[in-house]
Design a protein that fits this description.
The complex is a heterodimer of chains A (236) and B (121). Chain A has a seven-stranded mixed sheet, sandwiched between helices. Chain A has a single domain (3-228), classed as Spore Coat Polysaccharide Biosynthesis Protein SpsA, Chain A. Chain A is 42% helix and 15% strand. In chain A, helix 5 (126-143) packs parallel to helix 7. Chain A is built from eight helices and seven strands; from the N terminus they run βαβαβαβαβαβααβα. By secondary structure, chain B is mostly helical. The chains are: A alpha/beta (236), B mainly alpha (121).
Chain lengths: 236, 121
């Protein structure tokens, strides 16, 4: 399976090298591309210097538009699968083969790396866990999408999911919305257990105030998504 | 009914408004597409100013006691309509900008690869 690892990076000068080297050490057979989201620091220059493939966005689009660039690239170059992998050091490359396994067996179109299936590794603070639990429950109630860690940014997509994300992908705080949209459009979603680390350097994009905005925006997006989308039966 | 003074002030204000609108349109600093709602509001206000009997009739119809409040309500309605049109236009624009930024990044990478291949042999 021709697989691309998409690494969205916004001001990740401190972490990007460790992330890419982690990937190269654990998954030497996979192609990767760093999508630089108009970083103000030297992320793009650093990647060029070290010879990493870079998609360089001229302006900052936010995580949604950034990741979508990677999916468009995967579609244009005919990749069979794409893995989304954070640049900040939270994701562990050792789990990528496990993430790809259900795609290889043709059992799922979208595989999500979940922190909550096994109780191992870093699982973020209690408040954030509560928020994630609420959103996951909402997605289950509204759309029957059964995903525990709906905000996880670590996922693997097959061709059908790549095509879907290349066409439409939510813009800010896109993870729950995109899972929901994928589920409603009939893509088969599977969740597997992964461990994550706390971020290694730099700053998280989610502050307490943004956390409130996050919850409101994502909840609303889930409700509207349910209202506006025609549900397509799962092809099983 | 509107007082004579209010009517005169309103007409003067509308004359200025119309003049500015036409000036902007003539200098092409305003596309007709987005000016339509402004023109529509202009005409609505003009009708209300020229025929002052409409306002009390309308106020009675919808149950507003003070006629000037009916005027304000109409103005606010026009403004909200224009705001919504603007928000919708911005949403469309940001979608287009996003797609173009992405296409630019994809093309830039292809160009870079081409240049590297050219410079090698």
């Amino acid at each position: 399976m021709k697989t691309l690892v998409i690494i969205p990076a916004y001001n990740e000068e401190e972490n990007i090298v460790a992330t890419v080297e982690d990937l190269r050490a654990h998954c030497p057979g996979l192609d990767l591309v760093v999508v630089n989201d108009g970083s103000a620091d030297g992320t793009a220059a650093l990647c060029r210097r070290r010879g990493y493939p870079v998609l360089d966005l001229p302006v900052n689009l936010g995580i949604g538009g950034c990741v979508q660039t990677g999916y468009r690239y995967a579609r244009d170059r005919g990749y069979d699968a794409a893995v989304q992998f954070d640049a900040d050091g939270q994701h562990m490359a050792g789990y990528i083969p496990a993430l790809l396994a259900p795609l290889e067996r043709g059992e799922a179109d979208l595989v999500i790396g979940s922190r909550f299936l096994d109780k191992e590794g870093f699982r973020s603070g209690a408040v954030r866990r509560l928020g994630i639990g609420f959103l996951s429950a909402l997605a289950r109630a509204l759309c029957g999408v059964e995903v525990r860690d709906i905000t996880s940014g670590m996922r693997a997509a097959d061709r059908a999911a790549i095509d879907f994300f290349a066409r439409e992908y939510a813009q800010d705080y896109p993870e729950p919305e995109s899972v929901l949209a994928a589920g409603l459009s009939g893509l088969r979603i599977r969740e597997i257990a992964v461990e994550m680390r706390p971020r290694q350097g730099g700053e998280s994009s989610i502050t307490p105030l943004r956390g409130v905005y996050y919850m409101i925006k994502v909840s609303l997006a889930l409700v509207l998504g349910r209202l506006f989308r025609r549900r397509i039966g799962h092809a099983e | 009914m509107l007082s004579k003074n209010a009517q005169i002030v309103m007409l003067i204000a509308l004359a200025v408004y119309t003049a500015v609108l036409f000036l902007l349109l003539r200098q092409k600093r305003l596309t007709l597409r987005y000016a339509l709602l402004w023109i529509f509001s202009d005409i609505l206000m003009l009708v209300l100013a020229v025929f002052p009997r409409i306002l009390p009739w309308f106020a009675g119809l919808v149950g507003i006691y003070d006629h000037t409040n009916a005027l304000f309500a109409t103005v606010i309605f026009c403004l909200i309509l224009i705001q919504m049109a603007l928000t919708s236009a911005i949403s469309g624009l940001s979608e287009k900008v996003k797609t173009m930024a992405q296409t630019n990044a994809l093309l830039e990478k292809r160009l870079r690869e081409l240049e590297e291949r050219e410079s090698k042999p």
